Amino acid sequence: MLNEILGATARSEDIGTRTAAGDAPARPGWTAPAKPASGDPVADLREAILAKLAYAIGKTPETARERDWFAATALALRDRIVDACMDGRSTSIPNKRVYYLSLEFLIGRLLSDAMNNLGLVDTTRRALRDLGIELGDVEAAEPDAALGNGGLGRLAACFMESMASLSIPAIGYGIRYDHGLFKQSLEDGWQKEAPETWLAEGNPWEFVRPEATYTIGFGGHVTMSAISDGVIRRHWHPAETVRAVAHDVPVVGWRGKHVNTLRLWKAEANSPLELAQFNGGDHVGAVAARSKVEAISRVLYPSDSSESGQELRLRQEYFFTSASLQDLVSRHVAERGDLRSLPDHAAIQLNDTHPAIAVPELMRILLEDHGLAWEDAWHITTHTLSYTNHTLLPEALETWPVELMERLLPRHMQIIYLINWMHLEEQGRHGRADAAQLASVSLIDEANGKRVRMGHLAFLGARRVNGVSALHTDLMRSTVFKDLHALDTDKIVNKTNGITFRRWFHNCNPELTKLAVEVVGERVLDDPEALLGLADYAADSAFQARYAAMRTSRKEALAKVVAENSGIVVDPSALFDTQIKRIHEYKRQLLNVIETVALYQAIKAEPHKDWTPRVKIFGGKAAPSYVQAKLIIKLACDVAKLVNSDPDIAGRLKVVFLPNYRVSLAEAIIPGSDLSEQISTAGMEASGTGNMKLALNGALTVGTLDGANIEIRDHVGADNIFIFGLDAAGVQKRAAEPDYAARAIAASPRLSAALDFIEAGGFSPEERGRFQPIVDDLRHNDRYLLTVDFDDYWRVQREIDAAWIDKASWWKKAILNTARMAWFSSDRSMREYADDIWRVKVG
């Protein structure tokens, strides 16, 4: 592991005494409480773990479970994080903080991150081994913190770690979901959802902050009162209120130099029960109000297929946004006094449209709670907020029915109307009074039943709006925000996503990291750009042999994971072909599945041909109400059932769908993958981060010219990536042609045969029409141009087959991928945000 070459120094700013407005300032000369110290770090940590096991967990070593050992170890390490905070804390207030608002933080397991970043991996391993416990067992006992769905939440987690590693003072704000995203299981190939119970035995990493509790209102009415000189003030009187209680999780940076805070809000009722109602015998009704309130932080992304589900989602978004803004405004007032200086000392980043309600909520706080004039409040708001857009899909750009907004957030709807009126009036003053043009830039979409456009609202209220890849940002300017961009051509900027190398290289793949350190030097641990030095060894046969041996080890570990999770035995010498991401039609898992069907048919037709052995690995969750996505999972599982049991295939093709895809599973899959499937319809994937993680670990990418795939190609070289299909312009052109799907199918005998076999019940003989909706959609609709790109996808896959046979060439490409992914570090992303968007000092 990396412990031998890691040293930990400590300095922090945000966790502990100044994480909530009104907390006592750090006292000069603070020192950690005295602890017995032997001078032996292993012995000290061993005794600390035993003490936590006894006094915090209440167990003896003889009675402790692996989960108890995990909690005791986490608590012992948490003490060291607190020491790192306190020992290096400056009594001065940072000049500027970043506040990162995100509905998702997919942080996964934290033990390995904490050990790695503090330089305590080997110390912890030895301390536990002295107690007869293996570190791997303890790590496995930690549940994944299921606080996100996919790339959006994992990106937020990477950004938080990078900000801590770069010593950027920051607080992340989100929701402490009781259950987070659902736990996925497969029953006869059908996705089943169950609550994710990651908090069943508590969270040893968090600090509960009851003193940081805020009241969140819903519904009610608005009144007016006259102030001097004819000034009118409006006052919101909510019909119901909810308490938002802070729970802080420390985010420790690389080498323990800095620790930031992830503050997660839990919804609590003002009263645990209606006592009179309870004493009157209505024991269930007495807690009904509490259940409704606490549902806000119960589950991530409740289904919005019903009106009540839509309302709960809006409640979630406003709940955490309001609590976060109240918290940061209170902190600023306590530290600085005058709110007019908020833009100078706070940068608020809205991660997608989920916290877009921050625009009217910050205005409401400034207007009502602090008595500012409209012009001052608007200046503060538009110079403090920034907005990251993550999608170009119209259905993913949130809109809310005006009726729902007026009922649930009446004061905010008033503010939105006024912002919109002033915005449209300004267009008229500049000669832009065309009705169609005004309708396109209005915050209210009146063509679809009067809905508030949250993307437009975030755009208008932000100082900067950024895309997350070069292509995505260009498309933002020319599509979804075309007319708004024309009004302010400097507002949209690009900030290509990145990933934290501490998690997805050092921690995820210690063997490869050790190899890089031996060849390039220890600088590679601190500076991702040092990875470029590996390129000098890409053609070196001795280094290729070491690289290949490392990959074999990781693939053997992945084969074991596959067997444990699916019961399917796979050959590590085969090409491991991986597509891991949430299931969505635009990500085109279906294209991969149908190519698998065509490959199966080809092998059946020519069983004696020298086929390149492949293992197709799928992982991902479908939204509970997304019927077509769940049917795609079922098709993949049914294909696997037939292919894996067919003696004619003889192991040359295996198909695996791994259930309950999550961060810890990704950490096993990514280092063992040979091929990374990034095959979304061009122009529809904003960026991607899985593509970066896989390429960093040496997987070659097969992909479209979409999202960050373009920039990956530009960095790794066109010879070291496999590109196919239409580009974004080609997609737009072809989608405008009539009957493009039918013509593409007719022109492709291979595609036609695969669809015919599926349609005839080849994979579902007991229910021949099971996959008819999939086939019908492809024949008559095919919004994501799967049929159009199929033949080129088949071509590039056979090119990959040939490339896999030439191992020297393959390992050269893989090494160059690892080396040239240096630019895709989230440290680089955070430096760019800090310089161009937040205007905050790094380090």
UniProtKB/TrEMBL annotation:
Single GO MF descriptor: pyridoxal phosphate binding
Catalyses which reaction(s): [(1->4)-alpha-D-glucosyl](n) + phosphate = [(1->4)-alpha-D-glucosyl](n-1) + alpha-D-glucose 1-phosphate
Region of interest called Disordered, as start-end residue ranges on this chain: 16-39
GO biological process, one term: glycogen catabolic process
A Pfam family the protein falls into: Phosphorylase
Top class in the EC scheme: transferase
Gene3D superfamilies tied to this protein: Glycogen Phosphorylase B (3.40.50.2000)
KW Transferase (keyword) present: yes
Name recorded for this polypeptide: Alpha-1,4 glucan phosphorylase
Provenance organism: Methylobacterium bullatum
Gene: malP
